[in-house]
């Protein structure tokens, strides 16, 4: 056991070290994680034997749950509103179109049966949340393109999973479900997933504010537990757990609550750990010696996906959107395939489907080509199509300009105030009412979400409108 733990520690440490190399030379960091897993596998220098597709799939599922929650939790709801309709179409219709187009080409290029070809198309149809989230953090784009691409990658996995499971059922079963049943199941998964995500996401801030835990370290544990329960419960009632956790993260971020900033940072770390863990696991699962056999097929299918299937799905899905042709071409290029298609490729392996190993190896190779080709060139392509937001670069360089606020006010908390003993997050004050500072016993304290109000606190409040100021004091019983 001690050797196993030490080995995992070494692999994680190598992943972090290689991430620095990745930053320096522009190689996508997730590709580095994957390479380390391959080097550690049975064909690599460590020679670790691992060929259990079921375990790899389960590990991938758990990792994806927290990657998606962290992605939603780090995204503001206001930022998503302008791209919501287009994002939903891309993550549903776009996935179906991409799967069908890819499947048609796979039928002729890979010599699969029509069902196996469509299964292959479904597996490789979704863009990868882990890859897109990681790359978008370093790229500032115009016209909310970053938010659209993040939302699409975070919400299109359920459609790909549904298509994969359904078509795999066709491949392995004797009786096929009718079209009405398929449409009903598909719709219910999204509806139940969205509703459960909204319910839990709306509940999380209130729960965090009202529950009084004795130790800060228990709050992350509580939230980890809630996310796990949400995923399992949603799947149990016929909804899509991946949609639920992503939506829950978005709505949890919508309101302030105790230790919110700390928890967002914590889950960003969890997401990185999960990304490293799943890429290492999938790297161990693959046998590099088998990849040359599918290299040509993988290259051909990668070209089809990047230059035919993805652009067709994007242009049809964004037909009625505000985006220009150049922006649509850029959206098409950010169709990175990564961890999710590889996880889905383990499903046929677990089911013992015919040609499952070829499908897995080909999908794995395509993911490498996609992350390498599209990830490395993304900034250059963004500049070529003119979608880089140049204004973002000058925010830190702006000269300081004195600003006067006429709405700064002082308020002293009296002994009858109802806010005594409550923290700032618990109050859920409106955006126009900002408590900037508190003076307590000749000490000035910056007011954050965990700040607890006490009698005789002198508050410095920013509120432009006098009527709104007085109304807020009255409603919240200051």
TrEMBL record:
Q: Name one GO cellular component term.
A: plasma membrane
Q: Which residues form the RCK C-terminal domain?
A: 396-478
One Pfam match, given by its short name, reads Na_H_Exchanger
Q: How does it sit in the membrane?
A: Multi-pass membrane protein
Give its localization. Answer: Cell membrane
Q: Which residues cross the membrane?
A: 29-48, 55-76, 88-110, 117-139, 159-176, 188-207, 213-233, 263-288, 294-317, 329-350, 356-376
Main localisation:
membrane
Instruction: Cite the GO molecular-function annotations of the record.
Output: antiporter activity; monoatomic cation transmembrane transporter activity
Q: Which UniProt keywords are present, listed alphabetically?
A: Antiport, Cell membrane, Ion transport, Membrane, Potassium, Potassium transport, Transmembrane, Transmembrane helix, Transport
Top-rank taxon:
Bacteria
**UniProt cross-references to InterPro entries, sorted A to Z:** Cation/H_exchanger_TM, Na+/solute_symporter_sf, RCK_C, RCK_C_sf
GO biological process terms, alphabetically, are: potassium ion transport; proton transmembrane transport
PANTHER family found in the cross-reference section: K(+)_H(+) ANTIPORTER NHAP2 (PTHR32507:SF7), NA(+)/H(+) ANTIPORTER 1 (PTHR32507)
Q: What is the recorded name of this protein?
A: Potassium/proton antiporter
């Amino acid at each position: 056991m001690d050797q196993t733990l030490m080995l995992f520690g070494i692999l994680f440490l190598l992943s972090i070290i290689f991430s620095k190399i990745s930053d320096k030379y522009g190689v996508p960091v997730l590709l580095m994680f994957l390479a380390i897993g391959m080097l550690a596998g049975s064909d690599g220098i460590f020679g670790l034997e691992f060929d259990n597709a079921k375990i790899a799939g389960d590990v991938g599922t758990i990792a994806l749950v927290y990657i998606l929650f962290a992605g939603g939790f780090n995204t503001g709801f206001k930022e998503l509103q302008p791209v919501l309709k287009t994002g939903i179409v891309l993550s549903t219709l776009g996935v179906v179109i991409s799967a069908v187009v890819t499947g048609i080409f796979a039928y002729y290029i890979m010599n699969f049966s029509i069902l196996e070809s469509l299964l292959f198309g479904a597996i490789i149809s979704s863009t990868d949340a882990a890859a897109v989230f990681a790359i978008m953090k370093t790229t500032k784009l115009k016209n909310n393109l970053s938010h659209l691409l993040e939302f699409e990658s975070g919400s299109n996995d359920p459609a790909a999973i549904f298509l994969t499971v359904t078509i795999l059922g066709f491949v392995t079963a004797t009786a096929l479900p009718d079209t009405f049943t398929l449409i009903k199941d598909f719709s219910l998964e999204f509806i139940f997933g969205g509703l459960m995500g909204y319910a839990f996401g709306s509940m999380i801030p209130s729960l965090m504010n009202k529950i009084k835990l004795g130790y800060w370290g228990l709050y992350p544990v509580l939230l980890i537990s809630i996310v796990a329960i949400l995923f399992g419960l949603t799947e149990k009632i016929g909804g899509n757990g991946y949609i639920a956790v992503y939506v829950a993260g978005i709505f949890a971020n919508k309101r302030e609550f105790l230790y919110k900033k700390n928890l967002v940072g914590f889950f960003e770390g969890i997401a990185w750990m999960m990304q490293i863990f799943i890429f290492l696991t999938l790297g161990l699962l693959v046998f590099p010696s088998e990849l040359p056999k599918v290299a040509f097929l993988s290259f051909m299918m990668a070209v089809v996906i990047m230059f035919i299937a993805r652009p067709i799905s994007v242009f049809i899905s964004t037909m009625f959107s505000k985006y220009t042709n150049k922006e649509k071409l850029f959206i098409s290029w950010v169709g990175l395939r990564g961890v999710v298609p590889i996880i889905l490729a383990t499903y046929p392996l677990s089911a013992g489907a015919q040609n499952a190993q070829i499908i897995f190896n080909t999908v794995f190779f395509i993911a490498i080509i996609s992350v390498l080709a599209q990830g490395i060139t993304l900034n250059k392509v963004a500049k070529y199509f003119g979608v880089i937001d140049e204004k973002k670069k000058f925010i830190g360089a702006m000269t300081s300009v004195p600003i006067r606020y006429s709405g700064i006010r002082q308020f002293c908390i009296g002994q009858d105030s109802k806010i005594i003993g409550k923290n700032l997050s618990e109050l859920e004050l409106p955006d126009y009412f900002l408590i900037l500072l508190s003076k307590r016993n000749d000490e000035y304290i910056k007011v954050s979400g965990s700040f607890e109000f006490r009698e005789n606190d002198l508050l410095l409040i920013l509120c432009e409108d006098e009527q709104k100021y007085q109304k807020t004091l009255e409603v919240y019983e200051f």
